[in-house]
Specification:
The chain is about 40% helix and about 15% strand. The chain is α/β, with parallel strands linked by helices. Helix 5 packs parallel to helix 6. The mean pLDDT is about 85.
């Protein structure tokens, strides 16, 4: 039985889908992470190795907690190194890149690098990237035997440190088993946003999403947000003002099957970002693609995206997963002119084509080729 290890600082839904795929092929699948995976994620792996328990992560906020963090990591570091001695393949997913590099140093198997976000493509001035992340990213590319990525082919080919390594584009596809059937919708029009709510301060150069939410709510369209950074968003002064509107709804993050079930009552999944063109490279804006599309598709929601994210729009249009607008200010007038029923019907007819199960063979063939080299 082959043994695969999936590694990242925190285990995310995409890695869970990969684990399920490998297990269905008869492989033993384990995870290595800094933080203990969520209970619903643990089920996807035969065994999970981690440096810190979930309750230890909460303690990190204080100075005393930070000191104990280093002690905990030092005590447990051997635990995450030991599984690397007898595995067939290690798939390291960034960011952070330093953790992946650390594991690559000890791995004596085939090393696959999956750069979830590529620092080299992000800012025009490299000094805006965290120097250590940029440094370890380059080293991960060099140490890896092969690269899996979620970017347009042109973006990845232009990386100066890629050389002639085998590469495969493999997007964070949806999970067919998690697809929600058509459920009853709330009255009116309801749009939902899931993920990090960018504010333009903590995430320099990103357009604050709260202004998009405001335009939607002021037009009498319900906007629901489930921010990963809930505490920061809940304390934002303008978000507090927005909550006075009956059309703005702030929710705490929801996970697992309940997450998809809750999302399924809405009408649209929002995927919109705007970047400062003076700070960000064109390659970054043209290549952004995240797990949001899969989240919305699994919940049965058409994706509503903006054309400043060309790769997202390309994939959404290619698989008939939703619609795109030029600018967020067009959302109210745009939604008033379309037939939602036909858009949703197209989604249900085509979303199976955007599932892991439909693309698994490409990844399996690719990895087998790497192992046989």
């Amino acid at each position: 039985m082959k043994k695969y290890i999936l590694a990242r600082a925190t285990i995310n839904p995409f890695m869970v889908k990969l684990a399920k795929m490998f297990k269905s092929r008869g492989a033993r699948v384990e995870s290595i992470s800094i933080y203990e995976p969520a209970p619903e994620y643990k089920k996807a792996f035969h065994k999970c190795h981690f440096l810190m328990k979930r309750e230890d992560k909460i303690k990190q906020k204080s100075k005393k907690g930070m000191a104990s963090t280093y002690i905990i990591i030092a005590k447990n570091v051997k635990k995450v190194i030991k599984p690397l001695k007898n595995c067939d393949m290690l798939i390291g997913v960034s960011e952070p890149n330093a953790f992946v590099y650390f594991l690559f140093l000890f791995a004596r198997c085939k090393k696959i690098f999956y750069p979830y976000d590529i620092a080299y493509l992000r800012y025009k001035k490299y000094r805006r990237n965290k120097w250590y992340d940029f440094l370890f990213e380059k080293r991960n590319f060099k140490k890896a035997d092969a690269i899996i990525h979620k970017y347009p082919e042109d973006s990845i080919k232009n990386l100066p440190f890629l050389k002639d390594k085998p590469t495969l584009q493999f997007l964070p596809y949806a999970d067919k088993e998690k697809m929600e059937r058509e459920n009853d919708k709330l009255e009116g029009t309801h749009i939902v946003y899931v993920g990090v709510v960018y504010d333009g301060i903590e995430h320099v150069g990103t357009f604050p999403l709260k202004y998009i939410f405001k335009v939607i709510a002021n037009a009498g369209i319900h906007i629901h947000i489930y921010p990963v950074n809930y505490k920061d968003v809940a304390n934002d002064k303008e978000i507090l003002l927005l909550q006075q509107s009956e059309y703005f709804h702030l929710h705490k993050p929801v996970y697992g099957d309940q997450f998809r079930k809750e999302l399924s009552q809405y009408h649209w999944g929002l995927y919109m970002l705007h970047f400062d063109k003076d700070l960000f490279k064109d390659e970054w804006k043209q290549s952004v693609f995240g797990n949001k599309v899969a989240d919305y598709v699994e919940a049965g929601l058409p994706v509503l995206c903006n054309k400043s994210l060309p790769f997202v729009c390309e994939i959404v249009e290619k698989y008939n997963l939703g619609l795109s607008v030029d600018h967020y200010s067009e959302i109210p007038s745009f939604l008033s002119t379309i037939n939602y029923g036909s858009i949703q019907k197209n989604l249900y007819l085509n979303r199976h084509l955007f599932c892991m199960e439909h693309h698994n063979h490409k990844l399996i063939d690719f990895l087998e080729g790497v192992c046989n080299e």
